[in-house]
Write a structure and sequence with these properties.
The chain is of the alpha/beta class and 289 residues long. The chain contains 13 helices and 7 strands. The longest helix has 15 residues. The chain binds S-adenosylmethionine. The site of S-adenosylmethionine has 21 residues, from helix 2 and strand 2.
Length: 289
């Protein structure tokens, strides 16, 4: 199956409110398929973009998408938790603006990498396929207490206890190998009601654990705040409340920042109609004093 293209979210808002005409160096910490970067480079002709992603497949797509902009783009594989080191290695010590567009891309969701409930391929869920830990390890090796904690804390799933217990019981018959098997197991525990797939929260939790997403965000944001130039801006698009809380608290508690968005910017109804995947996006922006 060929992965579907990713539609970038809140593009107009990023262009108008995160970036200004005066900016010269912009960091796209999650360049993905290059959707945001493409629009930014097109709109601001004096900007150069340094694009980062942990996912080598995404970078291959970004390379093609951003080819027309030639030397205005530098792409690098790396985890934004090491932002300072990765930028310093390329001689970049400060920048005017940075965007973190968190979560998974459509390329990952539809790429048969175990991110999606219907994937009958191995439970993987790694954004960086060179890292060791996969969802198979988490689901088949973590003990009851650890599984329950992850599903409760990272998924905010109120049936965490029952789901963790069902996983442990099912393991007696052998490993849970595919995303589909795990999703089916959760459907059996929770039943099917409501619009949300019953496994949504558990999948989110396991993905966060596999990719260490919350710690990465805290570390990446810290480096971004340190390195951002005066009057430069930091923008984060998040897709669930755990990430949004981290961003809100870090922005509010850092005396070097002015928070630009007292309330997060959310997609318009038109955007949600055109791209339902944008519905939970929240953009927060802060400016360095
Ligand atoms: C929502 S997508 C970004 C889409 C992109 N803005 C676009 O318009 O195409 C999120 C991307 O962030 C990447 N990512 C997630 N965590 C990361 C991290 N800690 N460091 C670098 N990239 C990360 C993922 O691999 C994915 O490609």
């Amino acid at each position: 199956m060929i992965a579907l293209a990713h539609t970038p979210v809140l593009v107009r808002e990023v262009i108008e409110q995160l970036i200004s005409e005066k900016f010269r160096i912009f960091i796209d910490a999650t360049v993905g398929g290059g959707g945001h970067a493409f629009s930014i480079l097109k709109h601001y002709e004096n900007i150069k973009i340094f694009g980062l992603d942990v996912d080598g497949f995404a970078l291959d797509i970004a390379k093609k998408t951003l080819e027309p902009f030639g030397e205005r783009v530098l792409l690098k594989k790396g985890n934004f938790r090491n932002l300072k080191r990765l930028l310093n290695e390329e001689g970049v010590y400060t920048f005017d603006g940075i965007l973190f567009d968190l979560g998974v891309s459509m390329y990952q969701l539809t790429g048969k990498r175990g991110f999606s409930f219907n994937d009958d391929t191995d439970l993987d869920m790694r954004m960086d396929i060179t890292q060791n830990k996969t969802a198979l390890d988490v689901v088949n090796n973590y003990d009851f207490k650890a599984l329950k904690k992850i599903i409760r804390d990272y998924g905010e799933e109120y049936r965490a206890d029952a789901i963790a217990r069902a996983i442990i019981n099912r393991r007696k018959k052998g490993d849970i190998r595919t995303a589909l098997e795990l999703a089916d197991l959760i459907v059996r525990v929770k039943g099917k009601k409501g619009r949300l797939h019953p496994a949504t929260k558990t999948f989110q939790a396991i993905r966060i654990e596999v990719n260490n997403e919350l710690e990465n965000l805290t570390k990446g944001l810290k480096d971004a705040i340190d390195m951002c130039a005066t009057k430069g801006r930091i923008g984060v698009i998040s897709f669930h409340s755990l990430e949004d809380r981290i961003v809100k608290n870090m922005f509010r508690s850092d005396e070097r920042l002015n928070v630009i968005t007292k309330k997060p910017i959310v997609p318009t109804k038109e955007e949600i109609d055109q791209n339902p995947a944008s519905r939970s996006a929240k953009l927060r922006i802060a400016e360095k004093k």
